[in-house]
Amino acid sequence: MDTIRRSGVLLHLTSLPGRYGVGSMDHAAYDWVDFLARTHQTLWQVLPLGPTGYGDSPYQSFSTFAGNPYLISLDTMAGEGLLDRTHLDAAPDFARERVDYGTLYTWKLPLLRAAAGAFAENGAAALQAEFDSFCAANAEWLDDFALFMALKDAHNGLPWIQWEMALRSRKPAALAAARKAHTQATHAHKFMQWVFFRQWEALKAYANARDILIVGDIPIFVAMDSADAWTSPDQFFLDAEYQPTVVAGVPPDYFSATGQLWGNPLYRWDVMAADKYGWWMRRLRGALRLYDLVRVDHFRGFAGYWEVPAGEETAENGVWRKGPGTAFFEAVRAQLGGDLPIIAEDLGEITPDVLELRNQFELPGMKVLQFAFSTDASDKFLPHNYERNFVVYTGTHDNDTTMGWYYGTATDHERDHFRRYMRTDGHDAAWSLIEAAFRSTAMYAVVPLQDLLSLGTEARQNLPGRADGNWTWRVTPEQMTGHLEYRLLETTQLYGRDPATYAGKAAEAGGQEGQTTKGAGATETANDNAAAHNGD
């Protein structure tokens, strides 16, 4: 268990500012890390980084292993000679405040495919060798993913369960013919993954050098239309035609009166157990390559999950099924070792077996302050009821912003309880919750950037159950003011979430010279990375 009280910010990469229609791993991402460092934050939480499909949800990815090409920095590619900069002069006039996924699909992806073709013809020898090494090291998932995406392109985006049966069932002759027919397309998808990973790994190293940990997110289920389901159909409840027989969701709760019908295929946990959960071990290893800590979305599914018959229009007519429970996490600990760097998203309808599973493996759970004011002083989300091993949020990506909640969806009772509990008139509701999170006993406190900026519902990231209009919010540079930095830094220090506080105590206890050696090395590395960044 971490001994340091940490704080940080939830901000997905798509929400960063930038010229080309979506946040990416360009100078704005490095500026963001610098902001976190200046305000002494030690956590940066992102949403899943996989390639998104229909609806643009990061929780419905084409692969649990791959990265999203939309997040690739085109300026960085141009600076490295991987893209002709003149192509960027013809970029569309993108909006600054919203992601335009439709235009990205028709402009950025073709640009990346053209760059892949140019690289295949004229790429520098050293970069070609690096690319070849990447492809060899990641062949276990990359070969199938690249072919899957090439076949989706060839089928005009149709889900794989609508392809011809020979490809659906992965007949060797059909796969061999497809690889031969789509060599150029598969190369392009491998190229995009290489660029994504080399850019992300550089950005992560830059953050880590500043003592900032990246908190990632793993959806417990994978998308039906994914390379994961296509390549491992035996791991899921599918029929002879490869159609799902049952799908995932959650019953009615405080997010939705009819529940949430996610539609993901459900795991055959008995099959997975037979090889000691090998598919999941590969998935977790891939995630820990991308992140320092992993939030497992819908953790309760490991104890019990909601099974809905395929074809239902809502999630109301489902049944609870038993998950793998202790056996799964014992396998994780045996194969990955040590303390599990996992945060358990334990929201929703939680039963004692979920809590027992979480506590048995000492996994931190979650608290959401917006949920704290609907009942009375016994509410588990109120800070005075916390234990230490939790991560507290003002809200998550599925919540309204705090200002949107307080002035919009909160009931009169919730607003009254909020004002009395926080000893405030409510005029600064977002920061009242931020300060409550930071001064709580929870091990970690994480705040969406929208709440730091006191934005309203217009900045909401996602409304569960809404089919479109989600995942589009972006911050603009002028919103990141000096006053915001001062206020966040002061709050962090006031409530003991500044790591310098703990470094100082350690130095006093163990001798200043011996305790500061690591910090000096980290500073030196950070300065080297900063110099590289500033020269970008």
How would you describe what is shown here?
The protein has 20 helices and twelve strands. It has 536 residues and is of the alpha/beta class. β1, α1 and β2 form a beta-alpha-beta unit. α8 crosses α20 and α19 packs antiparallel against α20. The protein is globular, with a radius of gyration of 23 Å.
Q: First CA to last CA: what distance? A: 38 Å
Q: What about the largest sheet? A: 8 strands, parallel
Which spans of ≥5 residues are poorly predicted at pLDDT below 50?
512-536
User: Which structural category fits the helices and strands?
Assistant: alpha/beta
Give the overall shape, derived from the CA principal axes.
Answer: globular
**Averaging pLDDT over every residue, what do you get?**
93
Q: Round the Cα radius of gyration to an integer and report it.
A: 23 Å
Oligomeric assembly: single chain
- Side-by-side strand order of the widest sheet: 9-6-3-2-1-12-11-10
Helix content: 40-55%
Content of β-strand: 5-15%
Strand segment count: 12
What is the number of helical segments per DSSP (H or I, 4+ residues)? 20
